[in-house]
Amino acid sequence: xxxxxxxxxxxxxxxxxxxxxxxxxxxxxxxxxxxxxxxxxxxxxxxxxxxxxxxxxxxxxxxxxxxxxxxxxxxxxxxxxxxxxxxxxxxxxxxxxxxxxxxxxxxxxxxxxxxxxxxxxxxxxxxxxxxxxxxxxxxxxxxxxxxxxxxxxxxxxxxxxxxxxxxxxxxxxxxxxxxxxxxxxxxxxxxxxxxxxxxxxxxxxxxxxxxxxxxxxxxxxxxxxxxxxxxxxxxxxxxxxxxxxxxxxxxxxxxxxxxxxxxxxxxxxxxxxxxxxxxxxxxxxxxxxxxxxxxxxxxxxxxxxxxxxxxxxxxxxxxxxxxxxxxxxxxxxxxxxxxxxxxxxxxxxxxxxxxxxxxxxxxxxxxxxxxxxxxxxxxxxxxxxxxxxxxxxxxxxxxxxxxxxxxxxxx
Length: 411
Prior knowledge:
Mean pLDDT: 81
CATH class of the largest domain: Alpha Beta
Order of helices and strands: EEEEEEEEHHHHEHHEEEEEEHEEEEHH
Distance between the termini: 69 Å
Number of domains: 3
Radius of gyration: 31 Å
Helix content: 25-40%
Low-confidence stretches: 80-109, 154-163
CATH superfamily of the largest domain: Chloramphenicol acetyltransferase-like domain
Shape: elongated
């Protein structure tokens, strides 16, 4: 029986997708729920599993094709029925009649397993099943095996002439090593969407960036003191992101404009704190969202971020997990960035940029000491956030990180 593989129903906000990579080729055996092909949307990669076990008989669309919901992708031939069985033969049929019917059907008594489509093509071309080699499980012959056999048979009588030898490559110009090569590749859907959103943010928002620096000595002491017991109790390491997320939530409480967004001529003040955390993948930057970050514990935040990072790099983040968000945190410090001006993740109005932790001499109580310092940056939409609010937001984040007790006491 032939089973159709179609594009699954795409999310409501997604009009189409791009067929990225086939993981199987015609003639390959597939298991039920095995991933056949990846479809890339503007935000995520969707996997299309096999609806049944069998043999991939035909691929309808090539890599790079734009597809929509319900479009036919491929055909799968289900596993054949019991070998030797004759469909429609009743219990009253005589043995000679059954034998004759089987003898007239390619593959019936030869021990060769043919899929229904392969059997039909073999009958039409009067092929001996014994001459066919199957690439499927247990030597099963698919339609593509028969077609390939016929193609080889047609071309075996007259081999095409050998192509002429290419002319020798000219020697490189003096003082130049090799040739100058350009490689042109289309943007992925995700990269194109990132480019569109970044340009949109620059064109529609009045973006400005303010900076400050944070002494992470107190945070480092807390992490060193409790890291073993924290990991033992919660099964996750105590990192920096939970401290920064909590500090940002405290600052957002005090300065609600930083947690707001613009819709037309209206300012929408969000009375909840959905914090996006930028995650870098091979395909580009994506921003999964920590819902109700104010209600999450340090352990909840660390577990969620770790889970997001693992699934983002595996391409299994869902559209819902990246939708919304009222504020974003991005950490360029993991790549060694000392200072940067991040771009707002529209329609949000602000984003906090973290950077590399670097030991530097600073003055503390009239003495010069070496402390782990980090520059932090807040890029914000100046249409609704004044410079005073942006600076005080950063000061609040700084105070919470330099004296973490503030986040517990809410002061």
